[in-house]
Amino acid sequence: MRRVWFSKKVAMKNLVLLIVGLGLLFFFFKPQKKSSEPSSSAPSQKLSARASQEPKLKVEDPVETPGPTLKEETQAIKAAGLARQAGFRNLPIKQVNGHWELPIKFTATHKHCEMGDLDLIRIDQKRRGVRSLILALDDMSSRENVVYQKLNVEQLVGQSLTLRWKASEELRPLGLYICSDVNERQSCHAARVGDVNQALKPKEPRREIDKVYYFQFIQEGPRLALLDSSRQLAKNPKVLGRALAAVGIPSGEARKLAENVSQHHVGIGSKSARFEDKQLTIDLPQNDPACPLPHLKF
User: Fold this and answer.
1) Phi and psi dihedrals of 285, rounded to 5?
2) What's this model's pTM, rounded to 2 decimal places?
3) What is the pLDDT of residue 72?
C-alpha cells in the first residue's frame, strides 16, 4: 500500500514539474508582435533622404566687366594723337585723397640787354602804384576761380609753392595766371589780357584795371595735361579745337575755348611752363644785371 502511494506521489510530482517546464518554455519562446512604430534609425534615414532631395546652390561664374570696344580704343588713340600734335603733355602727378597737389617753382632767367616779363611786371606795378599780385588757377569754362595764392614780385625769383584743389569729376579747362588784383576778385579771368610791353608806353594806364602778366593752359581730366605753348600748333585754334573736342569737350565749346587760349598765348607771349625735378617750373625772363638799361631805373 505504501509503495503504491509513494509511486503515485512521485508521478504527480513529475507531472507538476513537466507542466511548469512547458509553461516556462511557452513564456520565453512566445512569438513577439511586430511594432508598428518606426525604429530609432528611421528619422536619420528620412533626414538623409530629404537632404539628398534639397536643390543644390548654384555657384555662378564671376561676371567679367567688358573692356573697351574697338571703336572706343580707336577714338582714344586718335584723341591722344591729336593732343600730342597740339602740344599737350601729361604731368606726372597723381591725386591725393581726391585733390591735386601741384608744386610750382618760379625761376628768373637772364636775357642779355633785353627786358623780360619780370622787368615789365616791376615797371607796370611801380608806374601804377600797384602792389597786389596773385597766382590764380581759373576755370576758363565757368569763369570761376579754382584756387589762388597771393604773391609779391620778390617771390617770383626762385620761390616755390604748392597749389592744392579738389579734383573735378569732369573735364575742365584751366588757366594758370599771374595777374594784378587791385579789385580783389581773387581770380584773373576778368583781368585785361594784352601785351605786357604796354607798360613802357608814355601814357600811364589806369590803376584800377587789373592786368594779366602770365598765362599757361592746363587741361584737367583723369590726368593734368600741360599745353606746350612753344609749339606753333598750340597757337593754332583749329588744331587746338580738334584736340579739345577729341578728349570729350563739345565741339562748339571746344572751338571757342581754343580761340580764347590761342589769344592768351599770342597776346601775352608767356614762355611755356615745363615740368622738371617734380615741379612745374615757370620761367620769367629778366634783363641781365650786367647790361643795365636806362629805362629800367625804378
Assistant:
1) -65, 150
2) 0.72
3) 63
